[in-house]
Design brief:
There is one protein chain. By secondary structure, this protein is α+β, with helices and mostly antiparallel strands. It folds into 2 domains: about 5-130, Adenine-n6-DNA-methyltransferase TaqI, Chain A, domain 2; about 180-330, Adenine-n6-DNA-methyltransferase TaqI, Chain A, domain 2, CATH 3.90.220. Helices cover about 35% and strands about 25% of the residues. It contains 10 helices and 21 strands. It has helices at about 5-10, 95-100, 120-125, 130-170, 185-190, 235-245, 290-295, 300-310, 320, 330-370; strands at about 5, 10, 25-35, 35-40, 45-50, 50-55, 70, 75-80, 80-85, 125-130, 180-185, 190-195, 210-215, 220, 225, 230, 250-255, 260-265, 270-275, 275-280, 325-330. The strands form 7 sheets. Strands 2-9-6-7 form a 4-stranded antiparallel beta sheet. It starts with a strand and ends with a helix.
Length: about 375
């Protein structure tokens, strides 16, 4: 297929950009865009058109999940961290955007700490040449798939909202405890509160017989994601579980960096955890794990965890502070009814997530087909 250089497809309006420091911005209705989207809202605008903004520096370069280009429409202001592109008459703005969203910029960006896509390099980027009708056909198909992805993501959010609503319906708002449940503290409910090794351990790889070694980043959307876990040696694993041994049925609770996130261990996988995760063991005859996870993740307990977290850059919820988090404990029979409801929602969520993964895979394959 014939390829066009980017400068052949669009006008480059970089010279019209004007950065405004935060202290000099006057609040208003117009979006103020940077490399990765809206940064602020200001009182004036310098563009009023359908444009594609392409990250110049500070963009998501190299990511296959987060785009480096996005479309904007109407009145707006753009700072000097995004290139401003106006498609020519024979170039559809959405087609231009799709062609650049996940463009492989290897060898095109430079910079030791903050990668930059210079205008000279940008001008040489290649866009597949299609007729305007062909471009619009591609855009229609990709837009439909993007809409499906959006709907499925919104459905997953609705499941989360339904769980929160059911929790309050059954147990009341934890902040006010209108049903008068027995008050307690995390430290009173757990006979074991420990964190993992306070040092980084070398990753030897799963292929070399390593054991999963997880941290806060491996708790994603309510699941334990082992796909990005480190894998540590037998010696390091045995040392780690001597200090802290996570087991199925325990609660993982984040205490470093992103704090106050709970996850019930519901998988039959042996692993170790780093210092930024605590392991909570509790009496399961009086406290259901699914209820406990949702109790700790409710706004009431999460707000406490944030107040108890110390530090700004290196945030830490120390174990002694964690123990002070207040909660309540309804009868276990009621907790188990709530857990049964969650099991039903999890079945629906699994179907939606499977569909979402398949739809995303279709989108990715079509992007590869159309834009390489």
């Amino acid at each position: 297929m014939k390829m066009l250089q980017l400068e052949e497809c669009c006008e480059i309006l970089d010279s019209m950009r004007v950065p405004i420091t935060a202290k000099d911005r006057k609040k208003g209705p117009y979006p103020y865009y940077g490399a990765n989207g809206v940064q602020d809202y200001v009182a004036d605008y310098i563009f009023d058109d359908d444009l594609v903004l392409l990250a110049e520096d500070g963009g998501n370069f190299g990511s296959d999940k987060r785009p480096i280009a996005y479309k904007v429409s109407g009145k707006c202001w753009v700072n000097n961290h995004a290139h401003v592109l106006k498609p020519k008459a024979d170039m559809d703005v959405d087609y231009l955007c799709y062609s650049l969203m996940f463009y492989k910029v290897d060898g095109m960006v430079n910079g030791a700490t903050r990668m930059k896509l210079t205008q000279a390099a940008m001008r040489r980027m290649l866009i597949p040449s299609r007729t305007i009708e062909g471009q619009k056909a591609v855009v229609r198909l990709l837009n439909r798939i993007q809409m499906l992805i959006k709907v499925e993501k919104e459905q997953l959010k609705k499941y989360d909202e339904l769980i929160k609503s059911r929790f309050v319906e059954m147990f009341g708002d934890p902040a006010t405890n209108p049903l008068g449940w027995e008050k307690t503290r995390l430290g009173d409910e757990c006979y074991y509160i420990k964190d993992g090794p306070h040092k980084s351990l070398p990753d030897i790889g799963e292929e070399n017989g390593g054991h999963p070694f997880i941290s806060v980043r491996n708790i994603v959307n309510g699941y334990i994601d082992f796909s990005t876990a480190k894998y540590i040696s037998d010696e390091d694993y045995n040392d780690a579980i001597k200090k802290c041994r996570p087991e199925k049925g325990d609660i993982l609770y984040s205490k470093g960096g992103t704090t106050g996130i709970a996850k019930l261990i519901d998988v039959d996988v042996e692993f170790a955890n780093w210092v930024h995760l605590a392991v909570l063991k509790f009496d399961k005859s009086v406290l259901n794990g699914i209820f406990f996870e949702n109790m700790l993740n409710c706004d009431y307990c999460y707000a406490q965890s944030q107040k108890l977290t110390k530090g700004i850059v290196n945030r830490d919820l120390v174990l002694s502070a964690m123990s002070k988090i207040e909660m309540y404990r309804p009868p276990v029979e009621l907790q188990e009814q709530f857990a049964s409801f969650i099991h039903q929602i999890d079945k629906l969520r699994f179907v939606t997530q499977k569909s979402l993964a398949e739809t995303q895979q279709l989108f990715d394959s079509l992007m590869q087909k159309y834009f390489g």
